[in-house]
Specification:
Number of helices: 12
Strand order of the largest sheet: 2-1-3-4-5
Number of domains: 2
Helix content: 55-70%
Shape: globular
Strand content: 5-15%
Oligomer: single chain
Radius of gyration: 22 Å
Number of strands: 5
């Protein structure tokens, strides 16, 4: 990710640069001490602009409005110690994604920016799904329109299910969306192949020229992200079950996505305050059931 910093306090600018560098979140491509100094050309290469709310000359809200008016489409994260609800509301209305509070705290900066980055990656994954599902075989204009609508519906339903499971913002959610898109692209087949073959097919489909060495690293990284994300989903479902055993989300997903013994085990672990789990996840069952659920939703819509 590329960042641009607009902050009138030099000490805060230096601290933010150091946090971004040490946290390996990306590169700082430029800084400015006032909104008056910044043009579209300055921020054009930035994915995220960190901007102070109160600055001399032109405040953060005015600067955002000006850059948006010039055509900047990146994200804005506002840095502020102001708690005035009207100003905060105005900032959100003009396009701010979220806030970082002053005095700047390293953990808050990293946590906020990681959430923003994960959300951006999720949106990119959804766009990839929509593009990959829009590949048609040269039918008529009406056929293309219907296929495009079906593709968008599938992607939207996939995102809705991940949101219901409480994992839409997890790092592995993008991997899940890509896998669902791949399975949907295989002419509606429900049988999930051997997991490593599935991961390899998804990764080589996204990057055909990837080397064998890099492919193996990416497969391992994908496996780890997916395991963490599925564990998170299990924890969410177990927590819902502890609160309300008759909750529709629990009743629908607990027995379908997981071995129910694992759900019961995780519920007991949460009840006992245990943060780690002894559950052995069946990732293939989870992926198969998840794909079936999303496909069923898109067909019933």
């Amino acid at each position: 990710m590329n960042f641009y910093l607009i902050e009138d306090d030099p000490a805060t600018r230096r601290m933010l640069e150091r946090i971004l560098m040490d946290g390996e979140l990306g590169d700082v491509i430029g800084t400015a001490s006032s909104g008056l100094e910044v043009t579209l050309e300055d921020v054009r290469g930035a994915d995220i602009v960190l901007i102070d709310l109160l600055m001399p000359g032109r405040d953060g809200i005015q600067t955002i409005q000006d850059l948006r008016g010039q055509g900047f489409n990146g994200r804005f994260v506002m840095i502020s110690q102001v708690e005035n609800k009207e100003m905060v509301g105005e900032a959100y209305l003009c396009g701010v994604d979220t806030f970082i509070h002053k005095p700047v705290n390293r953990l808050e900066v990293l946590s906020v920016l990681k959430r923003v980055i994960e959300h951006m990656q999720l949106e990119q994954s959804l766009s990839t799904i929509r593009r990959s599902l829009s590949v048609l075989d040269g039918h008529s204009g009406s056929g293309r329109a219907l296929a495009a609508a079906a593709s968008k519906a599938f992607a939207d339903h996939a995102h809705d299910v991940l949101t219901t499971l409480g994992i839409a913002g997890e790092s592995g959610s993008g991997d899940l969306l890509k896998i669902l898109a791949y399975l949907h692209d295989q002419e509606g087949r429900y049988e999930v192949p051997v997991l490593k073959e599935l991961y390899q097919a998804v990764l080589t489909g996204l990057e055909p020229r990837i080397s064998d060495e890099q492919l193996q690293r990416e497969i391992k990284a994908m496996e780890q992200r997916l395991r963490r994300t599925v564990l998170q989903a299990l924890g969410q479902i177990a927590s819902i079950g502890l609160t309300d055993y008759a909750n529709p989300t629990f009743e629908q997903y607990a027995p379908r996505l997981f071995d129910f013994q694992d759900v019961r085990t995780r519920m007991k672990e949460i009840q006992n305050g245990e943060k780690t789990t002894r559950c052995r996840l069946n990732i293939k069952k989870f992926l198969t059931a998840l794909y079936t659920e999303v496909k069923s939703r898109s067909e019933d819509a």
